[in-house]
Amino acid sequence: MYDLIVVGGGPAGLAAARAAAEEGLQKILIAERDGEPGGILNQCIHNGFGLHYFKEELTGPEYALRFVRMIQKTQVEMKLDTMVLDVRPDLTVSMIGRAEGYQVHEARSVVLAMGCRERTRGALAIPGARPAGILTAGTAQRYVNVEGYMVGRRVVILGSGDIGLIMARRMTLEGAKVLACVEIMPYSGGLARNIAQCLHDNDIPLYLSHTLVDIRGRDRVEGVTAAKVDDLKNPVPGTEFTLDCDTILLSVGLIPENELTRKAGISMDERTRGAYVFDNMETTTPGIFACGNVVHVHDLVDYVTLEGERAGRAAAAYVNGGCGSADARTIALRADGDVSYTVPQYLRLSGEDAGSVPVFFRVRRNIVEGTVVVRDGDEKVAAFTRKHMSPGEMERIALPLRLLGRVRAGELSITVEKVAS
Amino acid sequence: MDRDVAIIGCGIVGAAVAYELAHCELDVEVIEKENDVAMGTSRANSAILHAGYDPAPGTLMAKLNVEGLELAKKLCGELNIPFRECGSMVIAFTEEEVEELKRLYERGVQNGVSGMRLLSGREALKAEPNLNGETRAALLALSAAIVSPWEYALSLAENAVANGVKIRFDSEVTGIDRLEGGFAVHTASGTVSARCVVNAAGLNAERIHNCVAAPSFSTLPDRGEYFLLDKSEGHCVEHVIFQCPTKVGKGTLVSPTVHGNLIVGPNNETPRDASDTATTRQGLDDVAHMAKKSVPSLNIRESIRNFAGVRAATDVDDFIIRHVDDTPGFIDLAGVKSPGLTAAPAIAKMTVALLRECGLNPVEKALWTTVPRPRRFSEMDADEKRRLLARDSSYGRVICRCETVTEGEIRDALRSVIPPRSVDGVKRRCGTGMGRCQGGFCAPRVVDLLARHYGVSPVRIPQDRSGMYLLTGETKTGEALECTI
Ligand SMILES: Cc1cc2nc3c(=O)[nH]c(=O)nc-3n(C[C@H](O)[C@H](O)[C@H](O)COP(=O)(O)OP(=O)(O)OC[C@H]3O[C@@H](n4cnc5c(N)ncnc54)[C@H](O)[C@@H]3O)c2cc1C
Ligand SMILES: Cc1cc2nc3c(=O)[nH]c(=O)nc-3n(C[C@H](O)[C@H](O)[C@H](O)COP(=O)(O)OP(=O)(O)OC[C@H]3O[C@@H](n4cnc5c(N)ncnc54)[C@H](O)[C@@H]3O)c2cc1C
To answer: Which residues of chain B from 219 to 258 reach within 8 Å of chain A, CB to CB?
Structure first.
């Protein structure tokens, strides 16, 4: 019997295990299907990790290594090459591994930290031929950074997610020609710093409000047709132009990897495509917690780590009998207007007054000079101003517990308003 | 003569003929243009084993559909080919369509279809709650089934090869000469001489026919486009749901697949040429629109893949299965449009009969080896998994995470009688890359396994057909960057 089983050894899982160990849990297992821990960080050989958490700029593998070292100092057990097949609501976890075969373990608590996967061509129904040379940016990143092979010579990037932007730069450095980055939305899906450093610095044009309307080629991609789209995202006839490329990299979004979560019968939020969670990262199934990209897609690993730590501490409290007291009051957070979702979706108030609860969310469009407003019915509870918000960047507010104690309704609404000029 | 029989094309029809002939003391070779089995229409269709009420009574299509269905089910059972007898429903929205259902029922009776029943709208909705509430009636056909078409063709070809049939891949037939007592079939990889030739070249059957005889039919390629939806939608319907057939075909259907997904399509449109399997925005929009008429709540956003297949329709409104006039020993299996997948084993039996008429006198082999499709790891229960893993730890390394396909299964495929030679070849055999991430995770690992197995650089491993290269060279550093921790 384990005190805690963590599914996934990426930054979220590593942070959760470490925090739980610090809280005194003895028997902790991390199951990771890859041959090494670190998750997606292992293929991110660029700088830009850890600015918030470590106050220095690390590469992905360096960031992961720090946590692996910390874990090695604890008693946490790590099973690599081990894939979890099932998590049951009664907290039994089945897994297969090369070394130990098929195993079923019981646990007192479980943390889900499976990360996310990339959206594919099929999810977008991009019409045209189906030759080789169409792949997701993350897969390309793996071929180039981990396997040492190039995936193309003349590249068009569809979507402006961070992985696509980073691969635009990487492919250019490797001698490929990146012809364009084509984004259907009127704004970029990635971080502003990546637009500047990966596209602008390499003179790669970014076509906003554009999409691909055709792909040509029999064996290998021979070219694409791009076109402008209208407000309803329909291509505008007459605006088509062709790009003569042999490769299309897709960076059209990430989807939390929640097959295990669904199978376990845990309630899911359609908007985040992750589990509904309380402020301590507990799901609607007692004793099962979730953190990191499996809950909602993060852009900075530092926040993944913090979320993982919260989940790990809460799992420890749960095992030690100190969490989710029956008389705690639950308040739902409702994303309204230009706020597309919130994580957590529920707060559980146990009467504590000190400190605050972090709430993460994304906005639906670019907003300059906006105020994030939290309301209890008609009454404004809190407001936070921001110079600039965009869908590509995750937003975070800290709700003081002191204010929450006074909330009357069972629900708080979170919206964004334009600052009156 | 090198061979008794040369079969041109290894789609479901060529494979079924090879399977049938493998039972006889004959020297048979299959000649296939691509690098694997089922690279043409046989892998891009609706995957339905039709009940047989559609084709006009008296046609070869009607006869061979009904016969083929029974044979196909038997084969699928014997060879462990994924199939499911889920039954089909044709639904009607108007009075005229209700009349059409009655005609279909009558036709079914004439064609010898069993297990049909006319349902009221209420009965249909009770069986399929997600159907359009305006459904007035339905024709239920219990005998219809779904199948994995490429595993079906592969399995027949594998069993043929295991019993002595030869296959040569990457060997497009470029010309045929008549010889004394046979034919010289010229291919991209050399010439094969054979006493008899079976033309099972699908969309290219007309061209092959015209190599030896005067043109007698012309191909009218007709493309159908599809959506394949995520397994989360796989139980949206339990039967194959058709709308009333129109002049051009059986219309857009919504159906579960044997792999647990939902398939939605096809439409009918004229492609640029027979090899044009591109999808179009208009076509896909039409399919989505049509399908929503059957199942209004259809969640097309859960699409994981689109594809298109081209029907080998001809100006003859039936299958063309016959000796070519004045060319004894040359048999056309042309115009094999829908229900060709269903009819294939019956077409094969008919072909053997035609070969007998050519003077070939096949004697049944005394010995036969059956090679069933291997059971997938993901289908096993906990005990089976445990036992297998105790025996061989390579079943503990998961290569495809969406479909839980293990290294052991891929290794078994690489050691099978027709080993895969591309990433998609592994996909057809083992199911890697079939899931929601569409190979994003497993493709690099599959490339690696293939490259090691064949002892070549990963750069040489194609996505699918030979020439569909994935990688364009090594990175500047050449070496893989070490990211080990
Ligand atoms: C290309 C790219 C560039 C980025 N750049 C930056 C950047 O510059 N700066 C920054 O701060 N952040 C960056 N990020 C974000 C950050 O890396 C991610 O948000 C973070 O890695 C997510 O951590 P995670 O642990 O939730 O998921 P992951 O890192 O994806 O880890 C999940 C782990 O779970 C394992 N797993 C999944 N299912 C199972 C199962 N069933 N059984 C066992 N194991 C399982 C997986 O193998 C994986 O190791 C980037 C992300 C990407 C993809
Ligand atoms: C959209 C669509 C939906 C369908 N749905 C169904 C259904 O649900 N149920 C059903 O029963 N039927 C269905 N069909 C019909 C069925 O798919 C076909 O009848 C069947 O696949 C035909 O098989 P085949 O072996 O004749 O052709 P193919 O599978 O096309 O095989 C022909 C082979 O010949 C090879 N070849 C071609 N030229 C040469 C050459 N010069 N040299 C060497 N080799 C060559 C090709 O590479 C190919 O492998 C559908 C068809 C389509 C297009």
So the answer is: 227-228, 232
Contact map slice: B 393-452 vs A, CB within 8 A: 393-398, 401-402, 404, 406, 436-441, 443-444, 447-448
Q: How far is B441 from chain A (nearest CA, A)?
A: 7
pLDDT at B167 over 60: yes
What is the number of the ligand 1 atom nearest to the C-alpha of A11? 25
- Chain segment B397-424, per-residue pLDDT in tens: 999 988 999 999 999 999 999 999 999 9
The 3-state secondary structure of chain B reads: CCEEEEEECCCHHHHHHHHHHHCECCCEEEECCCCCCCCCHHHCCCCEECCCCCCCCCCHHHHHHHHHHHHHHHHHHHHCCCEECCCEEEEECCHHHHHHHHHHHHHHHHHCCCCEEEEEHHHHHHHCCCCCCCCCEEEEECCCEEECHHHHHHHHHHHHHHCCCEEECCCCEEEEEEECCEEEEEECCEEEEEEEEEECCHHHHHHHHHHHCCCCCCECCEEEEEEEECHHHCCCCCCEEEECCCCCCCCCEEEECCCCCEEEECCCECCCCCCCCCECHHHHHHHHHHHHHHCCCCCHHHEEEEEEEEECCECCCCCEEEECCCCCCEEEEECCCCCHHHHHHHHHHHHHHHHHHCCCCCCECCCCCCCCCCCCHHHCCHHHHHHHHHHCHHHHCEEECCCCEEHHHHHHHHCCCCCCCCHHHHHHHHCCCCCCCCCCCCHHHHHHHHHHHHCCCHHHCECCCCCCECCCEECCCCCCCCCCC
Would an 8 Å CB–CB cutoff place B471 in contact with chain A? yes
Of A100, A145, A150, the CB nearest to B474: A150
Q: What is the pLDDT of residues A146-166, one digit of tens each?
A: 899 999 999 999 999 999 999
Q: Looking at this predicted complex, what is its ipTM?
A: 0.90
Window A:52-71, CB contacts with B under 8 Å? 61, 64-65, 68
Q: In a 3-state reduction of DSSP, which class is residue A236? A: coil
Q: pLDDT by residue (tens digit) across A172-204?
A: 999 999 999 999 999 988 888 999 999 999 999
What's the token pair of residue A4? 């805690």
Cβ(B108) to ligand 2 under 6 A? no
pLDDT of B345 higher than 60? yes
Query: Which among A128, A131, A143 has the least Cβ separation from residue B444?
Result: A143
B231 to chain A: nearest residue by CA? A259
The overall average pLDDT reported for chain B is: 94
What does pTM read for this prediction? 0.92
Q: Is the pLDDT of residue B485 over 50?
A: no
pLDDT at B479 over 70: no
pLDDT for A321: 86
Q: Across the interface, which of B458, B463, B468 has its CB nearest the CB of A149?
A: B458
Could you give the residue numbers annotated as active site of B? 50
Among B341, B342, B465, which is best to mutate for testing ligand 2, by the most ligand atoms less than 8 A from CB? B341
* Strand A268-269 with A274-275, pairing: antiparallel
| Chain A residue with minimum CA distance to B401 | A83
Residues from chain A that touch B473, judged by Cβ atoms under 8 A, are: 149-150
CB of residue B351 inside a 6 A radius of ligand 2? no
Residues of B in contact with A125 (CB under 8 A): 227, 279, 284, 300, 303, 306
What's the sign of the alpha-carbon dihedral B85, B74, B202, B467? positive
B477 vs A33: CB contact, 8 Å cut-off? no
E strands, A120-220, where? 134-136, 149-150, 154-158, 177-182, 206-207, 210-216
Q: Could you say which residues of chain A have pLDDT below 70?
A: 322-327, 419-421
